[in-house]
Design goal:
Elements: H1 2-19, E1 37-42, H2 48-64, E2 67-72, H3 77-89, E3 94-97, H4 106-114, E4 119-122, E5 136-139, H5 142-155, H6 157-160, E6 168-174, H7 180-193, E7 199-206, H8 211-224, E8 230-233, H9 236-248, E9 258-263, H10 266-273, E10 279-282, H11 288-299, E11 307-309, E12 314-315, H12 317-323
Parallel strand pairs: 1-2, 1-3, 3-4, 4-5, 5-11, 6-7, 6-8, 8-9, 9-10
Antiparallel strand pairs: 10-12
Helix pairs in contact: 2-11, 5-7, 8-9, 10-12
Bound molecules: beta-D-galactofuranose (GZL).
Length: 329
C-alpha cells in the first residue's frame, strides 16, 4: 500500500511538474523504479574525521533506503570531477559531494543542472557565485571554528606564554591548500587573536589534513623556530602528527608546547584527555542522516534551506574526559 501511495504521489508530482517542462521521468532512471539513487563524491580518506563522515553517509543511505554510488577521490579534484560526470551519465537522482577545494566547480555543476540532477554540497563549500547550481550546503561554520580556537587562546594567553618571554609564538598547521575549512579556520583564528597583540603566528604551512603531513611540517618548524609556545592545527590528525614530532624532539606536548586542534575525533579527544592536546573545537562529521533527509526533499522537488548548519561544541581536558566514553567517532 505504502509503495502504491508513494508511486501515486510521485506520479502526481511528476504530472504536475511535467506541466512545467520537467522532463525527468517519475521513476529513477538509474534504478528504474521509484527508489532514489545518490551519487556521492567523497574527498578521500585523509583523516579520522573523513572516515567517520564516510561511515555516516553510507549507514544513513542504507537506513533511508537510498542506493548510494560512492567514490573516493583520494583528495584529487580531477577524480571528483570525473565521478560527478559519471553520476550524470548514470542519470542518478541526486548528486552530493564535499568539494576538496573551493574553486573549479561551476562547469560540472552547470552540466548537472542541465541534466536536471539536483546537487547537495556537504561538509565543504564551493566559491560559485551562482547558488542555483546547488540546492543546499550542509556543513559547519569553519570561520566560527577558527574563532573559537583563537578565543580560547586569548582567554588563557598567560598560560600559553610557556617560555615566559612576554610573546606567544604560534605555529600553524594549515589544512589542504584552497579547501574551505583551511581558508575559513585561518580567517577565524586570526580574527580572534587580534584581541591580544602578544599572540603572533610565526610560521604557517599546510599539512594537508593528514597525520604524516602534520608531523613533517612540525619537524621543520621545530628546526626553524625557537621558543614555540603554541601549535594551532586545522584538524586533530595534523595535531597528532605534531605530537609525534614534539616528543621526538624531547619536548612534552601540551606542556612545553600547547596544542589547539579542530575536529574532536576519538584519537584527538584521547590525546586531550591525556593532556597532550590542550583544546579541541568540534567539527561534526555525522552528516549522513541530515544529508539523506535533504536528498529525499530535493528529489521530491520540495524547498530546502540554502544553508544547513551543523551543531557543534568545543572541549577542554575535563570535558574530553567526561565525553570520551560516549563519543560516536
Ligand atoms: C571539515 C572537514 C575537514 C576536517 C579534516 O569539515 O572538511 O577535512 O576538519 C578533514 O579532518 O580532512
Amino acid at each position: 500500500m505504502k509503495r502504491l501511495m508513494a508511486a501515486a504521489t510521485s506520479l502526481v508530482l511528476a504530472g504536475s511538474l511535467a506541466a512545467c517542462g520537467d522532463d525527468k521521468p517519475e521513476t529513477s532512471a538509474a534504478s528504474g523504479d521509484d527508489s532514489i539513487t545518490m551519487g556521492f563524491a567523497q574527498v578521500g580518506a585523509e583523516s579520522g574525521w573523513r572516515t567517520a563522515n564516510t561511515k555516516s553517509v553510507q549507514e544513513a543511505a542504507k537506513a533511508a533506503g537510498i542506493e548510494l554510488k560512492f567514490s573516493d577521490a583520494q583528495q584529487k579534484q580531477e577524480n571528483q570531477l570525473k565521478a560527478i560526470r559519471s553520476f550524470i551519465q548514470q542519470k542518478v537522482d541526486v548528486i552530493s559531494f564535499s568539494p576538496v577545494v573551493e574553486t573549479g566547480w561551476d562547469t560540472v555543476l552547470m552540466e548537472a543542472k542541465r541534466a536536471n540532477i539536483p546537487v547537495i554540497l556537504t561538509d565543504r563549500a564551493v566559491d560559485s557565485k551562482d547558488t542555483s547550481l546547488y540546492k543546499t550546503f550542509l556543513g559547519s561554520d569553519f570561520v566560527l571554528e577558527g574563532k573559537k580556537a583563537g578565543e580560547w587562546l586569548v582567554k588563557q594567553a598567560d598560560a600559553a606564554d610557556v617560555n615566559k618571554d612576554g610573546a606567544i609564538k604560534v605555529v600553524e598547521l594549515q589544512g589542504t591548500t584552497g579547501a574551505a575549512p583551511a581558508i575559513d579556520r585561518k580567517e577565524g583564528f586570526e580574527e580572534a587573536m587580534k584581541a591580544n597583540p602578544k599572540i603572533a603566528i610565526a610560521a604557517s604551512q599546510t599539512g594537508d589534513f593528514t597525520r604524516d603531513g602534520g608531523k613533517k611540517v612540525m619537524e621543520s618548524f621545530l628546526k626553524a623556530q625557537k621558543d614555540i609556545d603554541v601549535v594551532f592545527a586545522h584538524n586533530d590528525d595534523m595535531g597528532l602528527g605534531a605530537i609525534e614530532a614534539i616528543e621526538a624532539a624531547g619536548k612534552k606536548p601540551g606542556k612545553d608546547i600547547q596544542i589547539i586542534t579542530i575536529d574532536a575525533v576519538k584519537d584527538g579527544m584521547t590525546a586531550l584527555a591525556e593532556g597532550k592536546i590542550n583544546y579541541i573545537v568540534e567539527c561534526n562529521p555525522l552528516l549522513g542522516p541530515q544529508l539523506m533527509d535533504l536528498a529525499k526533499k530535493v528529489v521530491a522537488k520540495q524547498d530546502v534551506p540554502q544553508r544547513v548548519l551543523t551543531e557543534e561544541t568545543a572541549f577542554d581536558q575535563a570535558a574530553a574526559k567526561a565525553a570520551l566514553a560516549s563519543r560516536q567517532y
